[in-house]
Amino acid sequence: MTETQTTPPILISAAFDSGNIDVLSIDGVTARLAIHRDAQSTFFQWFHFQVAGAAGRTIELQITGVAAAAYPDGWRGYRAAVSDDRQFWARADTVYDADRDGGTLIIRHQPAADLCWFAYFAPYSWERHLDLVARSAVQPGVSHRVLGHSLDGRTIDCLTLGHGPKPVWLYARQHPGEAMAEWWMEGALAMLTDPADPHARALRAACTFHLVPNANPDGSVRGHLRTNAAGVNLNREWHAPSAERSPEVLALRNAMDLTGVDFAIDVHGDEAIPHVFLAGFEGIPSRTDAQSEGYRRYRSILERRTPDFQTRHGYPNARPGTGNLAMSTNQVAERFGAVAMTLEMPFKDNDDLPCPVQGWSPERSMLLARACLQSLHEWLQG
Ligand code: ZN
Q1: Distance from the CA of 22 to the center of ligand 1, in angstroms?
Q2: How far is the CA of 341 from the centre of ligand 1 (A)?
Q3: Which residues are catalytic?
Q4: How many CB atoms are closer than 10 A to CB 255?
Q5: Which residue has the higher pLDDT, 266 or 382?
Q6: How confident is the model at residue 6 (pLDDT cuts 50, 70, 90)?
């Protein structure tokens, strides 16, 4: 008898926080799947689902139609994240066949346990977010405030700490599928709230930090790649945020207007480029030489301080005067004269320092946050 006659088929569910998969068919240990689009939008790429009944069996998951995803170049050289215990995320054998079934990502894996989870990147749940915010808010010297609410009524949480004159804003997950951005924030908060950390002590004396770990909670819970509950890409709203389309950005930008901004990092993930890199504000109308030099100096300090960061690969610079002020880094640099930047971490791996087991991971995202903050301390020395 064949296996499908003797053992039941695998079962698949995505009915949980940040879940995203449509089951087209299941035959024994093989499943045909598809990713559904962000609400009222054409973007899709994030997936996250549970497979049950697979212990010791080699399963084949075919995620079809992905050539039409937001970043099809993201599938080449990509391996899916997999976990048995939802704590440690490894990578599964993954092949991309661009010519099959509208582009198919084929994941093969033999789980040791009955249950296992697959995701585009190690997920960062809303419950974990609430734990992070609550745990941070009770640390000495930390204050919490709700900057506003998302369209679905979730809080835009901001943690403030430090008593120095320089206002620093760190914010993440405008693009909700970029879960590595909130892992980065968890690393940043762990360091900045550590009373013993020497860099954190110096930074808290020099700066006042405002940290927004999740700027798009609705998209995160809904399992979106790139948009909020109304299908709006929040990082294209910064010139004119509105309560109807983008209350998340409106709340964040209004709060920045009250404090001013000297230094800012908008934390993201990049689907296609297998490196960590920064993007700046080269194209804004009022850019000054001092502002540009501040950005270049920060990049070179970070490059020297961590082998996980480099400056050879990244996005092309905007030509002078062509910067898109709808994007937060440009808007913040233009509006406040700040040294502002977009930090991009890979969904794949850092090809300069690859990790065969995990690829780019939560652990590395958290360590990168520490390197970024240590670099900020050095940068402030002038
Ligand atoms: Zn992004």
Answers
A1: 24
A2: 12
A3: 344
A4: 18
A5: 266
A6: low
